[in-house]
Amino acid sequence: MKNALVVGATSDIGTHIGESLAKRGFSLSLTGRNKQQLAELKSKFQIKYPIAVETFEWDVTDFSLHQKFYQELPTKPDIVFFVVGYYEDQTKAREDQIELLKTIQVNYSAVVSLMNIISLDMEKRNEGTIVAISSVAGDRGRQMNYIYGSAKAGLTTYLSGLRSLLFSKGVQITTIQLGPVYTKMSEGHNLIPWLTLQPQVAAELIVKAGLSKKDLVYIRWPWRFIMMVIRMIPEWIFKRLPPF
């Protein structure tokens, strides 16, 4: 039985990724900040599916725990899904240094720190898959979300370099360029219904991309072309556009 580690398993998308993997017979290692939610997920998955489930309550931004957590995992994962993300309010992040740093740490620094540890182990084993959720917001800096977008842009670049480095080692790195999804994180934001996915739909597409060992996938195909057009707008025009 293969093992999947889901970092951020209590998030709206993470819970559905866990279920999608459980259906496929993966044993699960689930991390999250909410002890009760983790316990509920463990009970639910073990009742519905004949799999082993381990849970780990901790905050991914606690960098001091990264090495210890991975070293003490009873089963090293065959595939890892990074489903952590944080985006509240651009104005608040500009004016509040704590909010600014949290946005950067959750979306970039913490992911890279833990991924570096895991990827080194997979490189030694010459096998493994890492799937990380980035965002179309990182394709170009826009007024409404450039702090969050810059963190995701950094993550996308990191994943690209890591993918090239580990290709010859038998380790697959999959980048998920995600657009809007109906989750707690997106509440209060103006979403376009035909471009916005339900979390269970997004989760299934993410799992399929990871298991198919794709390199870079836009979950909701129109975003590939939308962002291509946005990237092509000359800067002298782009900076004059209203917020979008």
From TrEMBL:
Any one GO CC term of the record: cytosol
UniProt family annotation: Belongs to the short-chain dehydrogenases/reductases (SDR) family.
Signal peptide extent: none
Keyword Coiled coil included in the entry's annotation: no
Cross-referenced Pfam families: adh_short
Gene3D superfamilies tied to this protein: NAD(P)-binding Rossmann-like Domain
Classification via InterPro entries: NAD(P)-bd_dom_sf (IPR036291), Sc_DH/Rdtase_CS (IPR020904), SDR_fam (IPR002347)
Superkingdom, taxonomy of origin: Bacteria
GO molecular function (one): oxidoreductase activity
SUPFAM superfamilies linked: NAD(P)-binding Rossmann-fold domains
UniProtKB keywords: Oxidoreductase
Species: Leptospira soteropolitanensis
Protein name per Swiss-Prot or TrEMBL: SDR family NAD(P)-dependent oxidoreductase
